[in-house]
Predict the structure.
Amino acid sequence: MNDPLQVDAYAAADFSGTDQAMVERICTLLQSSGASFGAKSRLLDLGCGPGNITARLARRWPHCSVLGIDAADRMIAVAEDRLRDFGLSHERLRYKKASLPIHQADQPADLIVSNSLLHHLHDPQQLWSSLIPLASPHCLVLHRDLRRPDSEASIDQLCECHVADAPAVLQRDYRASLHASFTLDEVKEQLLHAGLGHLRVVAVEDRYLEVSGWIMGCQAGSDQRRP
Protein backbone atom coordinates (compact mmCIF):
# COMPACT_ATOMS: atom_id res chain seq x y z
CA MET A 1 0.00 0.00 0.00
CA ASN A 2 2.20 2.78 -1.32
CA ASP A 3 -0.20 5.00 -3.27
CA PRO A 4 0.10 8.58 -1.92
CA LEU A 5 -3.68 8.96 -1.57
CA GLN A 6 -3.92 5.73 0.41
CA VAL A 7 -0.96 6.60 2.61
CA ASP A 8 -2.35 10.05 3.39
CA ALA A 9 -5.84 8.67 4.10
CA TYR A 10 -4.61 5.94 6.44
CA ALA A 11 -2.21 8.29 8.20
CA ALA A 12 -5.03 10.78 8.83
CA ALA A 13 -7.64 8.22 9.91
CA ASP A 14 -8.41 7.64 13.57
CA PHE A 15 -7.80 3.97 14.38
CA SER A 16 -7.02 4.67 18.03
CA GLY A 17 -9.75 2.37 19.34
CA THR A 18 -8.61 -0.75 17.49
CA ASP A 19 -4.94 0.15 17.93
CA GLN A 20 -5.31 0.42 21.72
CA ALA A 21 -7.33 -2.81 21.76
CA MET A 22 -4.29 -4.60 20.31
CA VAL A 23 -2.06 -3.32 23.11
CA GLU A 24 -4.61 -4.24 25.77
CA ARG A 25 -4.94 -7.71 24.28
CA ILE A 26 -1.17 -8.20 24.50
CA CYS A 27 -1.32 -7.21 28.17
CA THR A 28 -4.09 -9.74 28.76
CA LEU A 29 -2.18 -12.54 27.04
CA LEU A 30 0.94 -11.79 29.07
CA GLN A 31 -1.03 -11.64 32.30
CA SER A 32 -2.86 -14.89 31.67
CA SER A 33 0.42 -16.74 31.09
CA GLY A 34 2.36 -15.06 33.89
CA ALA A 35 4.91 -13.74 31.39
CA SER A 36 6.45 -10.30 30.93
CA PHE A 37 8.87 -8.51 28.65
CA GLY A 38 12.38 -8.04 30.02
CA ALA A 39 14.77 -5.13 29.60
CA LYS A 40 16.27 -6.64 26.43
CA SER A 41 13.03 -7.84 24.86
CA ARG A 42 12.37 -6.98 21.24
CA LEU A 43 8.87 -6.24 19.98
CA LEU A 44 8.14 -6.54 16.26
CA ASP A 45 5.22 -5.02 14.34
CA LEU A 46 4.81 -6.51 10.85
CA GLY A 47 3.01 -4.39 8.27
CA CYS A 48 3.30 -1.43 10.62
CA GLY A 49 1.92 1.15 8.18
CA PRO A 50 2.22 4.69 9.60
CA GLY A 51 3.39 3.29 12.94
CA ASN A 52 0.25 3.66 15.05
CA ILE A 53 0.58 0.38 16.93
CA THR A 54 4.38 0.38 16.84
CA ALA A 55 4.48 3.66 18.74
CA ARG A 56 1.93 2.41 21.26
CA LEU A 57 4.11 -0.63 21.93
CA ALA A 58 7.11 1.64 22.54
CA ARG A 59 5.15 3.79 24.98
CA ARG A 60 3.62 0.83 26.83
CA TRP A 61 6.94 -1.03 27.21
CA PRO A 62 9.54 1.75 27.33
CA HIS A 63 12.34 -0.60 28.37
CA CYS A 64 11.99 -2.72 25.21
CA SER A 65 13.36 -2.35 21.69
CA VAL A 66 10.58 -1.95 19.11
CA LEU A 67 10.85 -2.44 15.35
CA GLY A 68 8.18 -1.71 12.76
CA ILE A 69 8.45 -3.32 9.32
CA ASP A 70 6.49 -2.38 6.21
CA ALA A 71 6.95 -2.94 2.48
CA ALA A 72 5.78 0.57 1.55
CA ASP A 73 8.47 3.23 1.70
CA ARG A 74 5.90 6.03 1.97
CA MET A 75 4.35 4.39 5.04
CA ILE A 76 7.80 4.07 6.60
CA ALA A 77 8.46 7.76 5.88
CA VAL A 78 5.24 8.77 7.67
CA ALA A 79 6.10 6.54 10.64
CA GLU A 80 9.59 8.05 10.85
CA ASP A 81 8.18 11.60 10.77
CA ARG A 82 5.87 10.74 13.66
CA LEU A 83 8.70 9.71 15.93
CA ARG A 84 9.22 13.32 16.99
CA ASP A 85 5.48 13.83 17.53
CA PHE A 86 5.35 10.80 19.82
CA GLY A 87 8.45 11.94 21.73
CA LEU A 88 10.25 8.67 20.98
CA SER A 89 13.87 8.11 20.01
CA HIS A 90 15.48 5.95 17.34
CA GLU A 91 17.27 4.09 20.12
CA ARG A 92 14.01 2.49 21.27
CA LEU A 93 11.83 2.59 18.18
CA ARG A 94 13.00 1.93 14.63
CA TYR A 95 11.34 1.35 11.29
CA LYS A 96 12.57 -0.75 8.42
CA LYS A 97 11.39 -1.25 4.84
CA ALA A 98 11.16 -4.97 4.10
CA SER A 99 8.83 -7.41 2.37
CA LEU A 100 7.57 -10.75 3.62
CA PRO A 101 8.51 -13.53 3.79
CA ILE A 102 11.50 -13.04 6.08
CA HIS A 103 13.45 -16.23 6.67
CA GLN A 104 16.13 -15.09 9.10
CA ALA A 105 16.21 -12.59 11.96
CA ASP A 106 19.10 -10.32 12.87
CA GLN A 107 17.64 -10.22 16.37
CA PRO A 108 14.85 -12.64 17.40
CA ALA A 109 11.62 -11.09 18.66
CA ASP A 110 9.80 -11.74 21.92
CA LEU A 111 6.56 -10.35 20.49
CA ILE A 112 5.39 -10.43 16.87
CA VAL A 113 2.18 -8.60 16.00
CA SER A 114 0.35 -7.59 12.85
CA ASN A 115 -2.89 -5.74 12.32
CA SER A 116 -4.83 -6.01 9.04
CA LEU A 117 -1.80 -7.38 7.20
CA LEU A 118 -2.87 -10.89 6.23
CA HIS A 119 -5.49 -9.97 3.63
CA HIS A 120 -3.01 -7.70 1.82
CA LEU A 121 -0.68 -10.62 1.02
CA HIS A 122 -0.92 -12.55 -2.23
CA ASP A 123 0.07 -15.67 -0.32
CA PRO A 124 -0.84 -15.92 3.41
CA GLN A 125 2.19 -18.15 3.98
CA GLN A 126 4.33 -15.04 3.45
CA LEU A 127 3.24 -14.10 6.96
CA TRP A 128 2.95 -17.46 8.67
CA SER A 129 6.25 -18.84 7.32
CA SER A 130 8.03 -15.77 8.72
CA LEU A 131 6.96 -16.24 12.33
CA ILE A 132 9.23 -19.10 13.40
CA PRO A 133 12.39 -17.62 11.82
CA LEU A 134 11.69 -14.25 13.46
CA ALA A 135 10.77 -15.58 16.91
CA SER A 136 12.86 -15.94 20.03
CA PRO A 137 12.63 -19.29 21.89
CA HIS A 138 9.67 -17.89 23.87
CA CYS A 139 7.73 -15.53 21.63
CA LEU A 140 4.18 -14.24 21.93
CA VAL A 141 2.34 -13.72 18.64
CA LEU A 142 -0.85 -11.73 18.06
CA HIS A 143 -2.36 -11.11 14.65
CA ARG A 144 -5.68 -9.44 13.98
CA ASP A 145 -7.37 -9.09 10.62
CA LEU A 146 -10.76 -8.77 9.03
CA ARG A 147 -12.67 -12.00 8.46
CA ARG A 148 -14.57 -12.55 5.27
CA PRO A 149 -18.37 -12.20 5.53
CA ASP A 150 -20.58 -14.90 4.08
CA SER A 151 -22.52 -12.69 1.68
CA GLU A 152 -22.45 -9.43 -0.26
CA ALA A 153 -25.33 -8.21 1.91
CA SER A 154 -23.15 -8.70 5.00
CA ILE A 155 -20.36 -6.73 3.36
CA ASP A 156 -22.79 -3.92 2.56
CA GLN A 157 -23.93 -3.90 6.19
CA LEU A 158 -20.38 -3.74 7.56
CA CYS A 159 -19.44 -0.94 5.18
CA GLU A 160 -22.52 1.04 6.18
CA CYS A 161 -21.83 0.47 9.87
CA HIS A 162 -18.09 1.18 9.97
CA VAL A 163 -16.97 3.38 7.05
CA ALA A 164 -20.04 5.23 5.79
CA ASP A 165 -18.52 8.57 6.81
CA ALA A 166 -14.93 7.74 5.86
CA PRO A 167 -13.10 9.21 2.85
CA ALA A 168 -13.90 7.51 -0.46
CA VAL A 169 -10.49 5.83 -0.66
CA LEU A 170 -11.02 4.19 2.74
CA GLN A 171 -14.53 3.06 1.83
CA ARG A 172 -13.21 1.49 -1.37
CA ASP A 173 -10.32 -0.21 0.40
CA TYR A 174 -12.50 -1.46 3.23
CA ARG A 175 -14.90 -3.19 0.84
CA ALA A 176 -11.98 -4.68 -1.10
CA SER A 177 -10.38 -5.83 2.15
CA LEU A 178 -13.54 -7.64 3.26
CA HIS A 179 -13.59 -9.49 -0.07
CA ALA A 180 -9.87 -10.35 0.23
CA SER A 181 -9.97 -11.49 3.86
CA PHE A 182 -10.16 -15.07 5.11
CA THR A 183 -12.56 -17.15 7.18
CA LEU A 184 -11.61 -18.74 10.51
CA ASP A 185 -11.38 -22.19 8.92
CA GLU A 186 -9.13 -20.92 6.14
CA VAL A 187 -6.74 -19.34 8.63
CA LYS A 188 -6.68 -22.50 10.75
CA GLU A 189 -5.72 -24.47 7.63
CA GLN A 190 -3.00 -21.94 6.80
CA LEU A 191 -1.53 -22.29 10.29
CA LEU A 192 -1.56 -26.09 10.10
CA HIS A 193 0.35 -25.88 6.84
CA ALA A 194 2.93 -23.59 8.48
CA GLY A 195 3.42 -25.87 11.50
CA LEU A 196 1.59 -23.39 13.75
CA GLY A 197 -1.61 -25.33 14.34
CA HIS A 198 -1.31 -24.80 18.10
CA LEU A 199 -2.08 -21.08 17.73
CA ARG A 200 -5.61 -20.04 18.69
CA VAL A 201 -7.94 -18.58 16.05
CA VAL A 202 -11.12 -16.84 17.24
CA ALA A 203 -13.74 -14.43 15.95
CA VAL A 204 -13.66 -10.96 17.49
CA GLU A 205 -16.58 -8.52 17.35
CA ASP A 206 -18.58 -8.41 14.14
CA ARG A 207 -15.73 -8.35 11.63
CA TYR A 208 -12.34 -9.47 12.96
CA LEU A 209 -10.44 -12.66 13.54
CA GLU A 210 -7.56 -13.04 15.94
CA VAL A 211 -4.59 -15.41 15.96
CA SER A 212 -2.69 -15.66 19.24
CA GLY A 213 -0.36 -17.90 21.19
CA TRP A 214 3.26 -18.68 21.90
CA ILE A 215 6.08 -19.98 19.76
CA MET A 216 8.15 -22.06 22.12
CA GLY A 217 11.60 -23.62 22.29
CA CYS A 218 12.59 -25.86 19.40
CA GLN A 219 9.79 -24.52 17.20
CA ALA A 220 11.67 -21.26 16.88
CA GLY A 221 14.65 -22.97 15.28
CA SER A 222 18.32 -22.75 16.13
CA ASP A 223 19.81 -21.04 13.09
CA GLN A 224 18.74 -17.47 13.82
CA ARG A 225 21.35 -14.75 13.96
CA ARG A 226 21.78 -13.21 17.37
CA PRO A 227 23.42 -9.90 18.24
